[in-house]
Amino acid sequence: MQLFLRIALLCLASAAFSQPLDASDYQRKEWRHWEDFDGDCQNARQELLIAQSQLQIGFTNTRGCTVATGQWLDPYTGLMFNKASDVDIDHVIPLKYAHDHGGASWSPLLKKLFANDPENLLIVDDGENQRKSAKGPADYLPRFQYQCEYANKWQGLARKYELQLAHRDTLVLERILLNCTET
Known about the structure:
Elements: H1 2-14, H2 44-52, E1 58-59, E2 67-73, E3 80-83, E4 87-91, H3 95-100, H4 108-116, E5 121-125, H5 126-132, H6 147-160, H7 167-179
Antiparallel strand pairs: 1-2, 2-3, 4-5
Helix pairs in contact: 1-7, 6-7
């Protein structure tokens, strides 16, 4: 595990640093999210709710397109939820942050793939998602028990999509990863 953490830190340190680009042209509608890629009437949000429920899913109708109930653990707060209407699907790296740090020039297809990437999606408390908003790790961190996984997700996604993290966010991620221990 220590070797993995060192490699993760080296990868993070090698990422290009940047200040946010002019974000005045960020348009959320350009980042098409909650797409139904397989045509089964369940969009990316519904598919995530189904895949991650700890109990059998209940739907809003017999067609089975929209999830009503299940059981989900919010990794940010540690709270458990049973109603889909009480949770949001968070983009670990927010869409606006991605736009500001390299994604502004992406094709519409890449923006759509990023916005629906299950690796970048978490089921969280709707209030906590609003508190996080479009913040990077220097301005928002989940509860301590989830910070190592959160930092690893940020680093992996930034590398996968070649995002240029703000220097202050990189410093926070480095500090967290240095303090992660084997579990």
